[in-house]
Amino acid sequence: MRILAIDGGGIRGLIPALVLAEIERRTQRRAADLFDLIAGTSTGGILAAALTIPGPDGSPRYTADQLTRLYETEGPRIFSRSLVRVVLSAGGVLDEKYDSKGLEVALTEYLGDARLKDALTPILLTAYETERRCAFFFRSSRAAKDPAYDFALTDAAHATSAAPTYFEPVRVGDFTLVDGGLFASNPALCAYVDVVAAGRKEDVTVVASLGTGAAKRPIPYEVAKDWGQLGWARSVIDVLLSAQAETVDYQLSKLLEDRYVRLQVELELANDDLDDASPENLRDLRAEADRLVRKQDRAIDDLCARLTA
């Protein structure tokens, strides 16, 4: 059982897309063929969905390299605000920073009318239900058995990426959903627990976890000590994402030891903001991914060997 998990991180999803493109290049196989389960949160959930939808010939519709366009072409449209939006939202204080229309258009273009049950490889996407106050999982395995949970992939991908303060919540059926990064910015542990619960713990040979770049911008005591709700609101999402991802990294490294492979890079050039889709930052995100591939060359080679054994 080979598991792939892709972190949340907004526009920084370009990094795992490029790492997956390198893995596909080295193995000459698609991600959907290399893994038995693909889990994703937020931007990672969008990648998980897009990597597994079938094309006209029944094979995966997209290569990972093709999905980099989702960030470099669609990213600036998704994270775009009109002057009216800026004024009415008071810069994101009184309302969400972005209209969801750009995200919806991009998801429709890439995912079309595919449904959850259509995924060529089982997928698990995370979201949070705000009315029932509980974690919510889009599982293609459940969708294949229960039509009531066979949601459109555009809806599932939209829900997992509806980050609070950035986008409004999403209604999917009877559920009100927001970004799964609130509890699982690194969804690797969720995927592993699903496999264990299915009685397949001993079948797990590798869990490959792809990060979107570790945010290391410090929050000094002198700055944070006087923050109230408004001050923390500007940073709490980024803090939650980082803290949760690092905690899961620690837990799985202890539980699985060498069966767990984490491919992550500390951001040195790129802005760690989730919504910086400027040409300069997209260029820097590419550079961060290139640095990760160079630094983790041996680990990636070993992972590729294990995936194709």
Describe the structure.
With 309 residues, the protein is α/β, with parallel strands linked by helices. The chain is built from 16 helices and eight strands. Strands 1, 2, 3, 4, 5, 6, 7 and 8 form an eight-stranded mixed sheet that branches. Strand 5 and strand 6 form a beta hairpin. Helix 1 runs antiparallel to helix 4. The protein starts with a strand and ends with a helix. The relative contact order is 0.18. About 4% of the residues have low confidence.
State the helix count: 16
Class by alpha and beta content: alpha/beta
The portion of residues assigned to helices is: 40-55%
Oligomer: single chain
Strand content: 5-15%
The dominant shape is globular
Average predicted confidence as pLDDT: 93
Topology as H/E string?
EHHEHHHHHEEHHEEHHEHHHEHH
Number of strands: 8
First-last Cα distance? 12 Å
Give the radius of gyration: 18 Å
Low-confidence segments, ≥5 residues, pLDDT <50?
82-94
Largest pleated sheet: 8 strands, mixed
